[in-house]
Every structure is written in structure tokens, then in C-alpha cells.
Task: structure prediction
Amino acid sequence: MSAVKAAGVRVTLDRKSILRGVDLAVASGSWHAVLGPNGAGKSTLLKAIVGILPYQGEIQVGGEAVAKLAAKARARLIAYVPQQPQLPADMTVAEYVLLGRTPHLGYLGVESRTDRAVADGALERLDLAGFAGRRLGAMSGGERQRVVLARALAQQAGVLLLDEPTTALDLGHQQQVLDLVDELRSTEGLTVISTLHDLSLAAQYADDLTLLVDGAVVAHGTAREVLTEQRIAEHYGARVRVFDDGAGRPVIHLVRDRRPG
Amino acid sequence: MGRGADSETTPGVGGTDAARPGAGPLAMAGAGEDGLAEMNASVPSPTGALAVDHSATDDLVPESAGIGESNSDLSASPDRSAIDGRATTITSATSAPHRSRRPARPTIALLAATAVLLLAVLVSSLGGAAGLPVLGTTEALLDKLPFVDIHTGLGPVQLSVLNEIRLPRVLLATLVGALLAQAGAAYQGVFRNPLSDSGTIGASAGAGMAATLVIVYGGGPEHTVAGIGAVPLAAFVGALGGVLASYVLGTLVGRGGTASLILAGVAVSSFVGAVQTFVMQRSTADVRQVYSWLFGSFAASDWSLVRLALPYAVISVLIVSVHARHLDVLALGDDEAATLGLHPVRTRLIVLAAASLATATAVAVSGIIGFVGLVVPHVVRRVAGPGHRLLLPMSLLVGGAFLVLADLLARTVLAPAELPIGVVTSFVGAPFFLVILRATRERDR
Result:
């Protein structure tokens, strides 16, 4: 069980209040998208959940308060893929993915046969088996994203946090990665929390959404409930039309300013 | 969820890719058919197919297989073509699936490096003013190993030259080279900066200033404290002091991140260097002595220095080696390392302390020897890859061999005069480094 719950989460950085009491409830095995304009605190929220930023308030995973856990125990519950992962160019794909086993190892860091099997499984799961000996520096954008996902998968944590997983990817690869995450979510029973810039993509993939503005939640619920023309206009300052994709999920279009000028 | 269908409802991208007469398949034309068959067999049935399932396969579908049909439902993209040039490697990798690269290679590399080190020790034991015979010296060295008892053909004078002059010097050079190289690898790992070495965080500068102060004001090298030379002691304390000052200041001005530590090291080194220059300026009489120490030398080697250095060497090498995998994880940056359950700041502190202990030990018994800590890890990385579990022990071995040979040159080239060893390491090391970089430059791509 890896439901995620946050209550009154506050983060202050350099005396600036970044999150001001954020609540979040994510059902186990669901996909939750955190949306909001630039600087709303989306990435900060993910970093607080994964425990790399100090926060006030309560964050629970599977009913357990994560702040009380040791770093290793927390890392066995939550995997995190940052917006710009560091991929040491000379490391091979296999070596990198094996680093995902770190929270399961003792201080001396000797991997067991099981650890190698899990890493191999993650490689296979993401169709990277043939790339095991390849240097990370020789991988393309889409491949890199899959490699990072494989590392997160090797971590065998129930919760997967993705910070803007589709930035820097072209259309096809955006879809590929999100499809893949969705597939992993359903087969591995992962709980996924991701920030997403693209509202239509968020609407397509997420079960529930939270709209964050200025460090506070202004709306949460299904895509249809959260993504209304009026709300987007208000918080993003954008002129948009919201259509239905025919399957009950909203599609957001930007509308050009038609005034003559 | 009904999302399985999504990947099929977007033929647009794949369509254009199919229309472009496949750059990938062409490159594959000559590659092994077996690999292709295997790849094709792994293509899942089209209906449940996720777009990503094809990512490795669509480049490998031979042109004759009909791109129009088989690729049209794939979401492909331009950067796929990046794979194409390497398609052959992929196929061969597929037929021997996902074993991590070259399993036997670490052992071979370690054995080879050990052999090189032993050879360097032997050669260096032979070279010098009093000529020693090759066979007798080899036998005498083997005789020193436990459970080996060989009667050597060396005379008493030759034996005493070997035992009292050559061996301590050779072993001390090995020890110092090993310590400096491993410390360099550790610094580079901790700071995630390829230009780091013991100079980065104030160790060399601290040792240099402390030794200068002792030479100028403290009675010089003859002075001893509790049986230990005052200069080595000062260098040891100075190196640790320099690191401590840099660490504390770096943590105060930043958040313990690598950038602030390096900058604090620069500030401390520069400050301490200014003090040293000022002191040297004031007492030109001692400058020669200070300089000979600053560029390093093993001329004063004896067994007491080896015994002095050994315990610290063992402790620091053990601590650094234990953290090899931690350094691998640190390579992902502090944030990601933390999400994998590592304490980056704590790890950095421990490894820094151990590497600085190694540096202080080396500097104390030999003076400041540049280049080894910077260059040896890079050379090793070219051969052994970036993983610290191989990099650290290889740096020990190669660093030891490198410095032993450098010392051999230092004491033979201008015999009976000696060159400062720091001059030799840089003079020989710099061109050698460029040759290695050039020879292994494919890795840069």
C-alpha cells in the first residue's frame, strides 16, 4: 500500500515562503498530476515528499510519516526522477541502473545476485537490455529518460515522483514516456505523482490533479473538474478553450489574440 | 483506463518517419541476421503494443521487412537515427544479452597493474649509483616475502645498499604515489570535478606554509619533536589545517555544497600562499631549503619514515576504499544521492577527511609532489571506466608505480645530483598524459 498523504506542508527557502500549507491525497496505484504556473512550487512539493527539502507539516506514505524514517528506509518507499537527472557520461547504462539498488544495500554497498537480477529486470522492462554496456553519454534524449526510469524502477519503491518527465522530449517521446509510466503504474502497482507543464497531457494521463498557485492549492479533483477555461485564464493568465476529447477528458487549446493590431 | 489505445491513435509521427526512407534500416543492412531475427521476435503484438516497446526494435527492422506496414503504427522520432550508426553494436549486444560489460576485465586490470607496480619496484631497486645485479636483487626481494626463503648471491655491502638505502626509498615512493593518486581520485569523486586534487581544498598550501614556517623560524629540518622531524610534522598538521579551514569556511558561506567548498579552498590556498611568500621574502637565506622541500624529494627516505607513514596510509586507504560505491552514487549529485538513501554531506566529509589524511601523510614524508593526484586517476579512468570500485584500487597501484619510476629518473638522470621529484612528475607526466588522452580519445564522444 503506497497511498500518499500530505497535510499542511510548508516549505520556506531563504526566508521566502514557497509552499504555504499544501494538502494532497493520492490513492495507492493512481496517477496524480501536480499543475501550476511557473514558480507555483510544484517541484518544491515533490522535493519535500522525497525528503530532500526540509518542511513543516505531515507527509505520509502508506500511513507512515516519512520525516521520521531514515534516509534509506524512505528511499525504499519513494523513488524520484528529477527534471534534469545527472547522467555521468562515462557510466554505462547497467552501472547506472544498478545504482537504483542503493537503498537496499548495506554500508559496504555489495550488490547481491538479487540486486543484479532486479536491475537486469528493470533494464528489460524498459527495453534497454541491449543497451546495458552503452555509455550514458551516447544515449539520446528519449533513451536517457527511459534509463532514468529504469533506475527508479530498480529502486522498487511503491511511489514514483516525476518532475516534468516530458521536458526536452519531442512529441513522440513525450507520449512514449508517459505511456510507459502508465503501464508501469498499472503492472507494478506504482503510485505516480508527477508535475506536468502540459495541461492536456496531464488531463490525458492523470486520475486526479492538483492545481498549485503561489504555494497553495487552488483546486483539486479530476481533470474535468480542475481544468476549466475560467480557472486557467485566472491562474495562468492564458486565453484558452477547453474541449472534450470524446472520452471525457478535457483538451486545452491556446487561443490567439484576434484583435487587429 | 482505455489508454492502451492511445499509442495507436497517433500514427502521424510514425507515418512521417516511415515515409523518410529509413536511415536506420539502411545502416543495418550488413549486420547479423540472427540478431535481427531475435529482435523481431520480441516485438509484441500490435494491439497491446506500447510505443516504447518498439524503441529498440524499429531501427533494427530490415528494410525488406516492409517499413510501410511495420513502422507506420510506431511513434518514432528523429533521435532514433542517433542509434543507427551503432546498430551493429546493439545487435551484438543483444545476442549476448545485458551482462554488465566485460566481467573479467576488473580482475585482469588489477592483476596487470599489480604486475606493473612490482616491475617498477624491481627496476627502481636496481637503478642507482651502486650497481646491483638483476638476478641477485630479484632473489633478495623475493626473499623478503613471507614463506619464501632464497639464498641470494648479493654480498653484504650490496645487501645493505638494497635494504637500507634503496628499499625504504622505493617503498616510500610507492606509498606516497599510491596515497596521492587515490586521494586525487577521491577528491575528484567528492567534488564531482575532474580538476580536483589535494591542492583544491587547501591541503598542499597548508602543508607548504607550515613547513616553510618551520624551516625559516623553527630550527629547520634537523629540529625534531618527540623523535619526529619538525618539518614532516608541520606539513602533516598544515595539510589537515588547510583542509579544515577550507571545509569550515565553505560550509559557513555555502550549504556544504561542492562549489562553495572548492571556492573556500581557493581562498584559503591563496591566503596561505601569500603568507608563505611573505615569509620566504623576508628570509632569503632559507629559500633554497624551502624550495627543495616544496618540490618534493625522497632523498631523506629511511625505514623510520616508512614506519611513520604506514599506519596513516592504511587507515586512509581503508576508509576511502570502503566508500567506493558511495562515490559512485555521489556522481549523480547531492539531491539524487539523497533520494537513494545516501547522506551526501556526511559521505563527503568522511571521504574528504580520509583523503586529506592520505595527502597529509604523503606531504609529510616527501614534500609537495604535484600532478600525481590529478593525472593518475584520469589515466586509470580511461582504462577502467568511472566506477570507483575499480578506479580507487587501480589508482593506488598505478600511482605507486608512476612515482617509483619518477623517483628513479629523479635520482639517476643527473646523478650524482638529484632532480626534485615534482619536476620529474610534471616534466614526464604532462606529455605522457597527453599521449594517453590522445590514445583513448574515442571515449570522449
